[in-house]
Design brief:
The complex is a heterodimer. By secondary structure, chain A is of the alpha+beta class. In chain A, the strands form six sheets. In chain A, strands 11, 14, 17, 18, 19, 20 and 21 form a seven-stranded mixed β-sheet that branches. Helix content of chain A is 30%, strand content 24%. The longest helix of chain A is centred in the first third of the chain and has 17 residues. The relative contact order of chain A is 0.09. In chain A, helix 1 runs antiparallel to helix 2 and helix 8 crosses helix 9. Chain B contains twelve helices and 14 strands. The longest helix of chain B has 15 residues. Chain B is globular, with a radius of gyration of 19 Å. Chain B is 36% helix and 20% strand. Chain B has two domains: 180 residues, 3-Layer(aba) Sandwich (Rossmann fold); 128 residues, Rossmann fold, CATH 3.40.50.920. At the A-B interface, helix 1, helix 2 and helix 3 of A face helix 8, helix 11 and helix 12 of B.
């Protein structure tokens, strides 16, 4: 009598396992405790050993998921008949018909009378047929060939109706075909960050600080504004020269002025001359200021802050430098007061020290404009028909079009450029 | 309700028609004293006499030709072709004469002829006595084709065939003759072109004919134990075909298996598959599976014969393929 090989329960809670492959073929001799097949459970893949000596007569389940306790093979002596696994097959149906046939036989004296005699042989044929029927392969092949997605017509229709891209789905049908159920149960997943796949160290989750939240909120707000940008290049020869002379005359304890300080002064002077740019857009109206409180964007440890240099239009470069040094110092120490950040009428963002040539700054609402300043770099320029190398800076003004028109912005920018190229005019 | 075998139900329809209508008579090889090779007409000679229960020479072309002549003259003959394999001998009369006269005469002639025949494997009749050829006749305009699978249906459809003004090729299955079931006291004629839903289900539709109807019901029962809900439909007449009932079912279940004992290739399942893919294309969730006999002349050897023709297990395997994963 052949021994049934049943799928074992290898651990608590195991309901089924997936047969990966058989390590022995049908007809091969098998020894007890010899590895017989590879089984994949939800925990591990392992080799399962034979529980009996003999010949592997028949593999009932070649591969795939099987419930615990189901017969997956038979081991017995060579040439032994294999009992039918699980007892399901065609036999019962056919027998029923034939029983009825025999009962009815006396009506059947003629041609069919000899039929029941060969019933045993016919039964063998039916069983062989049943075995063929069961064994018909449902091959698992790659889901896609030539980039075409395999999907049933129904799945295609459902996907079309739901607006789902079939390319996003994994098919669970034969040969990876996408069937209706796959479409019905599909929920689009946010695309996994590629970094996650090659995780080298932990991904850092950073909770938003209140500063970061404010930045996010205000910049998102600012992003809604209809803006335009204007760009000019300024020859910084004289501005740099002026700065050097100021540095040379510096008294003990005084702050060394920077190009930024010069820019603050120049912008402040230009702002009071062009009140259209020195403005807030409040939603209900446009508020223009007779003074220039210039905000300067500072990269503080907790994020971007914009402390304000008040009355920059009426301050000397030295005063501006001192105020700037003080407020930036506090910004870096995280000691800014609320008042330090309020009442700005305009903002300068300078990334020149990082070598950035030019960029576009995002508006700092409710201010109507912001100036992005690039690095001062020696560039070839044409002066009086000949090429000369000059220290040039690219300035890009972002304007809120709800408050400022193109010409207003352009005039302001022209003044800034003139004042940088001839700083004396800012006096 | 009385219980009748399929065989008795055929006899009942013939006898009732002959009792009520002088124009109905039967004719065939050995149908009189012997009662037919399958015993269907046993006892009818005693009741109706040799004028109306007529033995014929062994010539199928003559049997059908005589039937056509009698039908055109106003009779309602029912001729028997002992095995459907022998229909081949009567093809000229059936295809070129019976099927054509009504249209060729502009409706002046009618051929209300019923050609009863039987066959099928399962008892080793050999390659020349076991074929299933119903599909051949579905291809011929002018004919009608019926193939009932239960006593009630065979009785009601035979009545309709006798009273149809067109030639009807009426298939019975050898293994269905002993099948017993309750039938109504009164004979209810069953209209052609009306399928019967034998069993309701929601996952797969099996469209089966002849012997494969009970086999499919058996398969459906086994499938149910595995959690697959199967609907089984018997079209009962292949020509005309009740497409609507089949399509409604497939639109509901999204999967379909066709099943007949005839060889799969070029079988009626191919026609069904074409109708279904066209009428329910956007509802199909799996390829339509066809179940039929292997493509070979049937062997006499009992084991080989049973191996070649389909059984419930083949239908069950096909059902599983339509719901298969991965």
């Amino acid at each position: 009598m052949a021994t049934e090989v049943k799928l074992p329960r290898l651990g608590q809670g195991m309901e089924s396992g997936t047969i990966v492959k058989w390590l022995k073929g049908e007809g091969e001799p098998v020894k007890k405790r010899e590895p017989l097949y590879e089984l994949d459970t939800d925990k591990v893949t392992q080799e399962v050993e034979a529980e009996a000596d003999g010949v592997l007569l028949k593999i009932v389940v070649d591969s795939g998921e099987v419930e615990v306790g189901r017969t997956i093979a038979f081991i017995g002596s060579e040439g032994e008949d294999v009992p039918e696994a699980g007892g399901n097959g065609a036999a019962p149906a056919a027998e029923k018909t034939e029983t009825a046939e025999t009962k009815d036989a006396d009506e059947d004296e003629t041609e069919g009378a000899a039929a029941p005699e060969m019933e045993d042989e016919r039964e063998r044929g039916r069983q062989a047929a049943a075995a063929t029927a069961e064994a018909e392969p449902v091959a698992a092949a790659p889901a896609r060939e030539d980039g075409r997605v395999k999907a049933s017509p129904l799945a295609r229709r459902l996907a079309r109706e739901k607006g789902i891209d079939l390319g996003q789905l994994r098919g669970s049908g034969p040969e990876g075909r996408i069937v209706a159920e796959d479409v019905e149960t599909y929920t689009p997943e946010p695309e996994a960050a590629p970094a996650a796949a090659v995780a080298r160290g932990e991904v850092e989750e950073i909770a938003l600080t209140s500063t970061r939240k404010t930045i996010a909120r205000r910049l998102t707000e600012a992003w809604q504004a209809p803006v335009f940008q204007l760009t000019v290049s300024a020859d910084m020869t004289r501005a740099l020269d002026l700065r050097e002379r100021l540095v040379a005359r510096l008294a003990e304890g005084e702050t060394k002025p920077t190009v930024s300080d010069l820019l603050t002064k120049v912008c402040a002077a230009a702002l009071v001359r062009h009140p259209a740019v020195n403005a807030h857009f409040t939603g209900e109206g446009i508020r223009r200021f007779p003074y220039a409180h210039v905000g300067i964007a500072v990269a503080a440890p907790n994020g971007l802050v914009v402390p304000v240099i008040r009355d920059a239009d009426r301050s000397t470069i030295a005063e501006i430098a001192a105020a700037r040094a003080e407020v930036v110092g506090r910004a870096r120490d995280g000691k800014l007061q609320r008042a330090d950040l309020e009442d700005g009428t305009f903002t300068i963002s300078n990334l020149g020290m990082f070598g950035v040539e030019q960029f576009i700054a995002v508006l700092n609402p409710p201010q109507a404009a912001i100036l992005a300043v690039g690095a001062t770099e020696p560039k070839p320029v044409v002066l009086d028909g000949s090429v000369e190398v000059r220290p040039m800076t690219v300035l890009t003004l972002t304007c809120d079009h709800r408050a400022i028109d193109g010409a207003d912005g352009a005039e302001f920018l022209r003044t800034v450029r003139e004042l940088l190229e001839e700083p004396a005019l800012a006096l | 309700m009385p219980e009748l075998t399929y065989r008795e139900a055929v006899r009942d329809a013939l006898s009732r028609a002959m009792r009520e209508d002088e124009d109905v008579f039967i004719m065939g090889e050995d149908i009189a004293e012997m009662g037919g090779s399958m015993g269907v007409t046993q006892g009818m000679l005693d009741e109706f006499g040799p004028e109306r229960v007529r033995n014929t020479p062994i010539s199928e072309i003559a049997i059908v030709g005589t039937g056509i002549g009698a039908a055109m003259q106003g009779m309602r003959p029912v001729v028997e072709i002992m095995y459907q394999d022998f229909l081949t001998l009567s093809m000229e009369q059936l295809v070129n004469q019976a099927a054509k006269h009504r249209t060729m005469s502009g409706g002046q002639l009618k051929v209300p002829l019923t050609i009863r025949t039987q066959g099928g494997a399962g008892w080793s009749p050999g390659a020349q006595h076991a074929q299933q050829v119903e599909a051949w006749f579905v291809h011929v305009p002018g004919l009608k084709v019926a193939y009932p699978s239960t006593p009630e249906d065979v009785r009601g459809l035979l009545w309709t065939a006798i009273y149809d003004d067109n030639p009807v090729v009426f298939f019975e299955h050898r293994l269905l003759y002993p099948l017993k079931a309750e039938v109504p006291d009164e004979l209810e004629p069953i209209p052609f072109g009306k399928a019967r839903v034998m069993r309701e289900g929601s996952d797969v539709t099996v469209v089966a004919i002849g012997r494969m109807v009970p086999e499919s019901l058996q398969a459906a029962k086994q499938a149910e134990e595995e959690g697959i809900s199967v609907e089984v439909i018997d079209p009962r007449t292949l020509l005309p075909l009740d497409e609507e009932t089949i399509l409604t079912s497939v639109r509901k279940t999204n999967r379909c298996v066709t099943a007949h004992e005839a060889v799969t290739r070029g079988g009626f399942g191919a026609e069904l598959t074409a109708v279904i893919q066209h009428g329910a294309f956007d509802y199909l969730d799996a390829p339509i599976e066809r179940v039929g006999a292997k493509f070979a002349p049937l062997a006499f050897a009992p084991a080989l014969e049973q191996w070649a023709v389909p059984h419930a297990a083949d239908v069950l395997a096909a059902i599983k393929r339509t719901v298969a994963k991965g």
